[in-house]
Design brief:
By secondary structure, this protein is mainly alpha-helical. The protein folds into two domains: 148 residues, no CATH class; 113 residues, no CATH class. The protein is built from 13 helices and no strands. Helix 3 crosses helix 9, helix 5 crosses helix 6 and helix 9 packs across helix 12. The termini are far apart.
Length: 325
């Protein structure tokens, strides 16, 4: 099965994912992996972020705020030393394993029901102590059936609070998911490595996101600048699906600016050593004494006939050859 076969599927995953899929209501509305895989990486990343948000909202609507809080914590908290929320890391792995399980099922039985992206999220939540009722799963699937990549015009039609919430969601979830998927795809296709392969770079981006788009804060320092960039693109092509594209470019610019500031700080803090001036003759001593004449070198004696020199020991091609007597 090519490179994807290197992943080892846990023994429990196919049964659990299949079970989650078979009990999904209105299965034709759910997004099967073949259709999901035809989306661009950026569209997939936005879909995943909206799906996680839809699950949290469905739990709150079902008066299960305790479970909704667990979902929020799982996909927002970044442990010390990490660069991504644990939930996003686990979901990414389960999504990859579910894709492989779906391919294996299809190879064995082309008529088998294809697995759905939603099932990968439901399995991730279940393994973290967040079981979902059929009603909640129905709400998530129905909500995602109406979901699509946000256009500039749709973003502009939202209130400022709605725009702020959407940007924070895409920056916090869609952006790191896109970056890690892009890095993996580059490695598989043998392309130039992504900067996201570097752990320090991932941590830098996570730090910038936390500072510019703090979770749950009414004031988002990075919102105004990003909203202006989206507005500029809206005036050019209002019906294009592009707000997330603007977010990716904005993050790249933020990282570049942060690196430039760090380089400037390093240059400013570098100790500048004073240049030495030429030695001065003490007053009253006149000219400096002339330097002593160099001692003549003694020529090395020629090598003896039975003791070949280095040149005699090097044969053609630079290989050392035994001397001849």
């Amino acid at each position: 099965m090519g490179k994807t076969a290197r992943l080892r599927i846990p023994t429990w995953l196919p049964a659990v994912v299949a079970s989650a899929t078979l009990f999904l209501p209105v299965p034709l509305r759910a997004t099967e992996f073949p259709r999901f895989s035809r989306m661009s990486l950026s569209a997939q990343a936005e879909y995943v972020a909206l799906m996680i948000d839809a699950t949290e909202n469905a739990l709150r609507a079902a008066n299960q705020s305790d479970l909704a809080d667990r979902v929020h914590e799982l996909f927002t908290r970044i442990e010390p030393g990490a660069s991504m929320p644990l939930g996003l890391v686990q979901y990414g792995r389960n999504e990859a394993l579910a894709r492989l399980a779906d391919l294996e099922r299809y190879e064995k039985d082309p008529n088998a029901r294809r697995l759905h992206v939603e099932a990968a999220l439901f399995v991730t939540l279940d393994k973290n102590g967040v079981p979902l009722s059929t009603e909640v799963k129905t709400a998530v699937v129905d909500g995602m059936a109406r979901s699509h990549t946000t256009t500039y015009a749709e973003f502009k039609a939202k209130t400022t609070d709605e725009q702020r919430k959407l940007i924070a969601l895409l920056v916090r979830l869609a952006y790191p998911h896109f970056r890690i998927r892009d890095a993996i795809t580059r490695r598989i296709e043998g392309k130039e490595p992504s900067t996201y392969d570097n752990l320090d770079m991932r941590k830098r981006e996570a730090t910038l996101i936390a500072a510019q788009f703090p979770i749950g804060a009414a004031i988002q320092p990075g919102f105004a600048g990003l909203a202006r960039e989206i507005d500029a693109e809206y005036r050019k092509t209002p019906n294009d699906a592009g707000p997330f594209y603007c977010i990716v470019l904005h993050m790249f610019d933020m990282v570049a600016a942060d690196l430039a500031k760090e380089m400037k700080r390093m240059e400013d803090s570098t100790l500048q050593l004073p240049q030495r001036s030429p030695p001065r003759t003490p007053p009253g001593q006149g000219k400096a004494a002339p330097a002593p004449a160099p001692t003549p070198k003694t020529a090395s004696p020629p090598p003896k006939k039975d003791s070949p020199g280095f040149g005699d020991a090097i044969g053609e091609g630079g290989f050392i050859t035994p001397p001849t007597r």
